[in-house]
Write a structure and sequence with these properties.
226 residues, 2 domains, DNA alkylation repair enzyme domain protein, single chain, ARM-type_fold, Serine Threonine Protein Phosphatase 5, Tetratricopeptide repeat, 33% strand, alpha+beta
Length: 226
């Protein structure tokens, strides 16, 4: 706790990083996974820190907690939101996992209505097959059917085939912004299927899904080939 008030930003950051329940590429801390409230006073001290690196650590710390205690992090976000641009950006990063999963409470904090009336049309693939190492090209159109300005969070998700026979879903953000009443916008996107150290592609059926404000609106499948 004392470190969170230290004059050096590196020490203040360490007070948050060193108490994270799920350090990346490291072992988790079972006690903090079970009872994360022990570290909340540290995060409270640092939430408005003048150093962005420190605030980013607070966001990552909250994201860790959200994986085991989403309601706790949502409660904190509701209390912290709206005080400054910097704090709102911290919360956006902290709730990224909940936002990607379509959590309606997380979406509502950032004014995204889960019941928004919107239509996806013309979801098209340039090709129904893509070779490993090449790109998938696709396009679609989003049309707001609201009678007023509406904030839309537009994402696509790919269900990747796995060697086990199961699938692994990855979320990619297209954009989020205000749409005017009955506004229609078309998008053209590409997704790389180059092999990566963090994602090994295999041949088989994959699924492309389009989400608006956390809700699945359209999908199509395609084949990945060698």
């Amino acid at each position: 706790m004392e470190w969170s008030s230290h004059e050096h930003p590196g020490v203040r950051r360490l007070s948050s990083e060193g108490s994270r329940p799920r350090l990346p590429w490291g072992m988790g801390i079972p006690g903090l996974k079970q009872d994360p409230e022990k570290t909340l006073p540290i995060l409270e001290n640092l939430k408005d820190d003048k150093d962005e690196v420190v605030r980013r650590s607070v966001a990552n710390h909250l994201n860790d907690i959200s994986k085991d205690h989403p309601d706790l992090v949502l409660k904190i976000a509701q209390q912290w939101i709206g005080f400054s641009k910097e704090r709102d950006l911290l919360l956006k990063h902290a709730l990224r996992g909940l936002l990607k999963s379509g959590n309606s409470k997380a979406l509502a904090i950032f004014k995204f209505d889960s019941d928004v009336k919107v239509k996806i049309s013309n979801l098209k693939l340039k090709s129904k097959t893509v070779k490993i190492g090449e790109d998938l090209f696709f396009s679609f159109t989003v049309r707001s059917e609201q009678s007023k300005q509406t904030r839309l969070r537009i994402e696509y998700k790919i269900q990747y085939a796995k060697i086990s026979g199961k699938t692994s879903k990855k979320v990619f953000q297209v954009e989020e912004r205000l749409f005017q009443p009955n506004e229609s916008t078309s998008y053209q996107k590409k997704q790389s299927f180059k092999q990566m150290t963090t994602r090994v592609h295999i041949s088989g059926k994959h699924v492309l899904e389009i989400y608006i404000n956390g809700n699945l609106k359209s999908k199509t499948d395609f084949q990945v080939i060698v």
